[in-house]
UniProtKB/TrEMBL annotation:
Record-linked Pfam families: Asp_protease_2
Protein name: Peptidase A2 domain-containing protein
Native organism: Odoribacter laneus YIT 12061
Highest taxon, organism lineage: Bacteria
InterPro entries: Peptidase_aspartic_dom_sf, Retropepsin-like_bacterial
Length: 147
């Protein structure tokens, strides 16, 4: 049986500068045993992961009920995944439903500027559900509410 997480948990975050005065905030996570960085994106309505990393976890297309778009237009070919595990810091969260999209455009930018890759975007659905507090001066993320 998994131990219930209690109390707020604080995890480190990283500020990266892609170009002059263009920043992203990253947090280390592990999804279904795959570790990597997610961009904290409070402007994203749902949490998404790179579909290339999770091809066997996709739900049937008729189960998809997520409308998606970006500032550059509609994002097509969205799938849904129910995670088997999602860990952030020392917290192992309950099953989550996240969208799977092609993040190739994001990773091309990261490869060009930082020579690294991200596995997804941590969206406002996660931030609101878990009472996320981002402390920019101290580069920490506090998770106030856990499953």
């Amino acid at each position: 049986m998994r131990k219930k997480n209690t109390g707020p948990i604080t995890v480190p975050i990283e500020k990266v500068e892609l170009e002059d005065h263009s920043y992203h905030i990253l947090v280390a996570v592990e999804i279904n045993g795959i570790a990597g960085d997610m961009i904290i994106d409070t402007g994203a309505s749902v949490t998404v992961a790179d579909r290339q990393l999770f091809p066997r976890f996709e739900e049937p297309e008729e189960a998809v009920k997520i409308q998606s778009g970006s500032i550059t237009g509609e994002i097509k070919d969205v799938q849904v995944m129910h995670t088997e595990s999602f860990q952030i810091g020392s917290i192992q969260l309950q099953e989550m439903c996240i969208a799977l999209i092609d993040l190739d455009y994001v990773n091309k930018m990261y490869k060009k500027h930082l020579n690294r890759k991200v596995i997804g975007l941590l969206g406002s659905d996660f931030c609101i559900r878990h009472g996320i507090i981002i402390d920019y001066p101290h580069l920490t993320l506090t998770i106030s509410q856990q499953d």
